[in-house]
């Protein structure tokens, strides 16, 4: 039923590894064993974008990060990502972000980068493999204490959302928000994941947040539609599961961590919850970090 979700995801994966190659469509179709026309049609149906537009937006976004993070010449970056000249690259960059590559390199600011498409999810995997799946490999949830210094958090606080899915279904554009935050990844608070979600509390009600933690002395621009708030220093109880297979085990791992986090008595470690003026954090990077829920605490 979801075979083409998986196939289009394979297209996305292939494109991400070969963005600097030409001609992209012909090479990809040969690799996957389908005609260029069929690949192009299915890609558009499942992503909502033409393959050409997707490659263009991903190339210009990758190029923007290299402008920000390296000293390579603008011309070399332009050629690397398939532009015929520095002038063509400048026109494309200005069309995408409203400024020239030279201006962006001199003074980087939040811009709406194009993010990698995900069309084959753990749900699709479960539907495909539900009759053949063996026992899920969930490890013990580790509980530890972590100190996070006072910092700022740039993002969106939505009191009308309770979790990840309801947040994005509540009028926020995942592509726009995540792409803009990706352009700010060079400002992330040391020791923290770049894009971070979580929960906050207001007048006894729990809402959901999404954004990026940055150092306390950050004084740069804040993207339109987002806020910048100061978060006090605190110790956190971290409920962590190590790296896992996202497609196969995501649901079970998240359930194990959250069941532990929301039912744990902090007195066992000499703490009490301290969530009135602080916020919970949710770290989700399956292959590199794993999954964790962080809840602020104070000594008792």
Automatic annotation (TrEMBL):
Coiled coil location: none
Record Pfam families: HTH_18
Gene3D superfamilies: Homeodomain-like (1.10.10.60), Regulatory factor, effector binding domain (3.20.80.10)
HTH araC/xylS-type domain: residues covered: 9-107
InterPro entries xref list: Homeodomain-like_sf (IPR009057), HTH_AraC (IPR018060), MarA-like (IPR050959), Reg_factor_effector_dom_sf (IPR011256), Tscrpt_reg_AraC-type_HTH (IPR020449)
Keyword annotations: DNA-binding, Transcription, Transcription regulation
Lineage: superkingdom: Bacteria
Cross-referenced SMART domains: HTH_ARAC
Name this polypeptide is given: AraC family transcriptional regulator
Organism lineage string: Bacteria, Bacillati, Bacillota, Bacilli, Bacillales
